[in-house]
Amino acid sequence: MLTRLIEMVSFILSRSLDSDEEDWGILRGELTEHLQGRGFNGQEIDIAFEVASRIRSRMDENASIAIPFKTNLVYRYLEEFKLTREARGYLHSLVLMGKITPIQREEIVERALFLDIAEVDLPDMQYLVNLVLGGDSWPGEDSPAVSYVIQ
């Protein structure tokens, strides 16, 4: 899933940077049609355009980027865009403590990026961690699994 999103964002950015097209709406329509033809759905395309737009605005603010623009930067930006600081810190601490592996972290982040909510906060992240580690309920007083296993 995440690979598909990175692919779309990279495609959108490359086309928008290569194009002298002043009208973002026309370019977006053309690119949307192309992406739909390649099998991407509307929600994925909307997320990709939102991320590409934010990246583009940051690039415009900085005028030039000193390092090559790579997909790992897109991935990092997606995390910052969707996950709260507390959620990112929580994941980082779990990896440092050895409670989850980097591969599990990536799976958790990927699930978080495709949740249909604007921002993933700490309780949401705890829930996703619990799911990846094999739990099936929301962490909290009713479900102490995460608090005993992870924290």
| SS-derived structural category | mainly alpha
Unreliable runs: 64-71, 138-151
Helix content: 55-70%
Q: What is the 3D shape?
A: elongated
Q: Care to count the β-strands?
A: 0
How much is the average pLDDT?
Answer: 76
SSE arrangement, N to C = HHHHHHHH
| Oligomeric state of the chains in view | single chain
Distance between the amino and carboxyl termini: 29 Å
Q: Which radius of gyration do the C-alpha atoms yield? A: 18 Å
Largest sheet: none
- How many alpha or pi helices? 8
Strand content of the residues, in percent? under 5%
SSE topology:
Elements: H1 2-18, H2 24-37, H3 42-62, H4 71-82, H5 85-96, H6 102-113, H7 122-132, H8 145-149
Helix pairs in contact: 1-2, 1-3, 5-7, 6-7
Overview features:
151 residues; mainly alpha; 8 helices; 69% helix; disordered C terminus
Task: Walk me through this protein's architecture.
Residues 64-71 and 138-151 have low confidence and may be disordered. The protein has helices spanning 2-18, 24-37, 42-62, 71-82, 85-96, 102-113, 122-132, 145-149. α1 (2-18) crosses α3. With 151 residues, it is mainly alpha-helical. It is built from 8 helices and no strands. The relative contact order is 0.10.
